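User: Reviewer 2 asked us to show a designed sequence for the structure in our supplementary figure. I'm pasting the structure tokens here. Could you produce the per-position amino acids so we can include them in the response letter?
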């Protein structure tokens, strides 16, 4: 299992092997024609003016695969999409990243790509929420918005001469706090219509970044006046802090509740287990894994979720879920 160092006893090895074999049998049949390994022949019609793309080569008049993956066809173009490849950005991708440098009029962001991404000052909302031209004063105050090691959420805007550009012009994008950022292989996070999930039951927010960075944090309400309210609140809090020290009740109110922190850790451990098993990571699968850990709260507390027994239980439950789904 990738990413987790767990020792399985003989019984657990047999159970895990059976679950993985069952999952393989359920998933291999419908995709047998599309999945290829190195040197496999790809059936094509040469009379249509074939265009060979990435991962293909012509040997003795036949098109063969040069990488393991799935055959994709776009009009006359035939290529092989690698299953375990680095993140390849596409316009509109929702990503989670970490600021590594504050440069003139821009931030440089690490997004699990071969190059760092660029977030321009002009590509995001200003703290006052007013749409206006950026001034020299805004550039001087860039560190009040994002600084080094801040975790942010943004959208891929496109490629330009100086690299990959991001944009954060919506209220749902911006700085993330009070949570954990996890790293998983990017191929486990599929592109979907919705990458922002609010788990009301647990009071947390879940952001599945297409780049393999996943954010699990305390739920934050997003409103139209969110930016303005944040500025007003920060100004009021700074004025109050100059006058008096916060009371213990006010300090406790500003902390994340223990129950929410436990839910964040439980959800993060569920994602780590799914990543180690190589399962596609979706909000539904994460919720099922979290509920499984809660149902076994006495036998499997949070700190034992990364153990061998729980990993085997997750694999067995996923195999059972897929078999039921296939019957329907």
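Assistant: Here is a per-position design you can include in the supplement:
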């Amino acid at each position: 299992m990738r990413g987790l160092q767990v020792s399985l006893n003989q019984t657990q090895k047999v159970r895990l092997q059976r679950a993985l074999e069952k999952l393989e049998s359920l998933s291999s049949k419908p995709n047998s024609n599309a999945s290829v390994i190195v040197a496999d022949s790809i059936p094509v019609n040469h009379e249509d003016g074939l265009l060979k793309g990435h991962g293909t080569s012509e040997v003795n008049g036949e098109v063969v695969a040069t990488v393991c993956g799935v055959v994709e066809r776009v009009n006359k173009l035939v290529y092989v999409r690698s299953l375990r490849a680095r993140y390849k950005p596409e316009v509109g991708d929702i990503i989670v990243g970490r600021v590594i440098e504050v440069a003139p009029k821009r931030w440089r962001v690490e997004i699990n790509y071969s190059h760092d991404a660029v977030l321009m000052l002009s590509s995001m909302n200003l703290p006052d929420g007013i749409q206006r031209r950026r001034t020299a004063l805004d550039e001087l105050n860039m560190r009040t918005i994002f600084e080094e090691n801040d975790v942010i959420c943004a959208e891929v805007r496109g490629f330009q001469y100086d690299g990959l550009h991001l944009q954060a012009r919506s209220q749902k994008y911006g700085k993330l706090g009070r949570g954990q950022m996890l790293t998983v292989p990017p191929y486990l996070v599929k592109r979907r219509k919705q990458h922002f999930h609010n788990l009301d039951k647990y009071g947390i927010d879940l952001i599945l970044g297409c780049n393999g960075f996943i954010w699990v944090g305390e739920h934050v309400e997003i409103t139209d006046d969110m930016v303005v309210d944040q500025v007003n609140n920060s100004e009021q809090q700074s004025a109050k802090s100059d006058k008096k020290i916060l009371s213990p009740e006010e300090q406790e109110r500003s902390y994340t509740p223990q129950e929410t922190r436990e839910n964040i850790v439980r959800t993060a451990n569920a994602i780590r287990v799914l990543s180690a098993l190589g399962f596609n990571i979706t909000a539904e699968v994460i919720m099922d894994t979290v509920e499984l850990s809660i149902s076994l709260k006495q036998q499997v507390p949070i700190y034992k979720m990364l153990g061998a027994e729980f990993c085997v239980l997750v694999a067995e439950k996923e195999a059972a879920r897929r078999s039921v789904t296939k019957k329907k």
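For the response letter, you might also mention the following. Residues 291 and 297 are 10 Å apart (CA to CA). The radius of gyration is 24 Å.
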